């Protein structure tokens, strides 16, 4: 089980690095518009979109590098869980982007958001394997 969890941690880290890198290049990330609109709402338009997307990219890279290499893993997982929690806010803040018929029929954006349930479960397993004394 430890090897499977290590591979899961590395895979999740690689995904976050990939997602983060894409956000450094305008219009390359399919999540750019969703992310900037959500950040605008959450932070009352105080952060310009071109800066908020770069901050999110840095956040995702830190999480990705932490997971991939096991560096500052506790911090990386903390940021991961905060990030994952915030990824669900568009379901409530931007339902017109998330649903064709709320709350049952998701758009592609809504499906993109809901798939994060799997990421969260992977994060929980990684946390329990590395820091929980009761381990899985």
From TrEMBL:
It comes from the Bacteria. It is found in: Membrane. The chain crosses the membrane at residues 7-26, 46-68, 75-93, 105-127. This is Doxx family protein. It is a multi-pass membrane protein. The keyword Transmembrane applies. The lineage of its organism: Bacteria, Pseudomonadati, Campylobacterota, Epsilonproteobacteria, Campylobacterales. Keywords: Membrane, Transmembrane, Transmembrane helix. Signal peptide: none annotated. GO terms for cellular component: membrane.
